From TrEMBL:
Residues 4-213 form the Bacterial bifunctional deaminase-reductase C-terminal domain. Keywords: NADP, Oxidoreductase. The keyword NADP applies. The keyword NADP applies. This is 5-amino-6-(5-phosphoribosylamino)uracil reductase. Pfam families: RibD_C. It comes from Methanoliparum thermophilum. Pathway: Cofactor biosynthesis; riboflavin biosynthesis. InterPro entries: DHFR-like_dom_sf, RibD_C, RibDG_C, Riboflavin_Biosynth_HTPR. NCBIfam families: ribD_Cterm (TIGR00227). GO terms for biological process: riboflavin biosynthetic process.
Amino acid sequence: MKKPYLFVISEMTLDGKLTLRRGVSSKIIMNYMSKESNIFLHKERASSDAIMVGCNTIKIDNSNLTVRYVKGRSPIRIIPCSFADIPLNSNVLDKSAPTIIVTSKKAPAKNIDAIRRKGVEVMVCGEDKVDFKLLMENLYAIGIKKLMVEGGPTILWNILKDQLVDEIKIIHLPILIGGRDAPSLVEGEGIKDLSDIFFAKLKGVRVLGKDLLTEYKIIYKKSTRQSLV
Ligand SMILES: NC(=O)c1ccc[n+]([C@@H]2O[C@H](COP(=O)([O-])OP(=O)(O)OC[C@H]3O[C@@H](n4cnc5c(N)ncnc54)[C@H](OP(=O)(O)O)[C@@H]3O)[C@@H](O)[C@H]2O)c1
């Protein structure tokens, strides 16, 4: 399968949380990122052909996904949104960088038309939900060879499950927030069997100001089936 090199970057608290509570913007914990981490994040954006973030993150965070902390070109913004119900005042629909809203055949035509009227491209990719394997083939075909994914946890589960993730980079912030309802890196339905575990091999460790960066290669291998319960 021809697909872009796909790497994930997430900022995470010391207790493994992506945001304060479910439904709350991660921009609050991102305020605790060191300048060095922000520069790293934006260099990674500038070195990527495209950046992908789930539709719910756009609805909650209203992310820009542009390059600001360093000089460089902003990548193409890819937003999977199965029903094309992205708020029309979202920052990613502005003119600061190109955007592709990826949707499914279930998306109402009026939603698609409203996005196109703003001059933003819509790619239909999948029957009921966005089909990520097909999306990767389509992105490769239009010249996207390096894709950065900045979450959230639902999208991360889906691309992991489809074995599309090559690398994960975590910026560990030295803060703890607790809360059983605070989202962690990967959500979705989770593995059903121990043979489904995704393994990661440590590639590198770096200090970014007061934060720690860890980089992992993802390894897909099947072991003997062993029930979780
Ligand atoms: N700390 C960090 O690094 C970081 C980074 C990003 C986000 N976050 C946080 O994560 C939270 C949002 O995460 P989230 O998990 O709710 O949302 P998400 O992963 O950003 O987006 C999930 C949405 O993607 C859409 N989608 C498209 N195709 C899909 C498919 N095949 N399968 C499943 N969903 C598909 C679904 O909406 P449709 O049904 O409409 O398609 C789904 O609701 C926010 O609080 C945000 O602040 C933190």
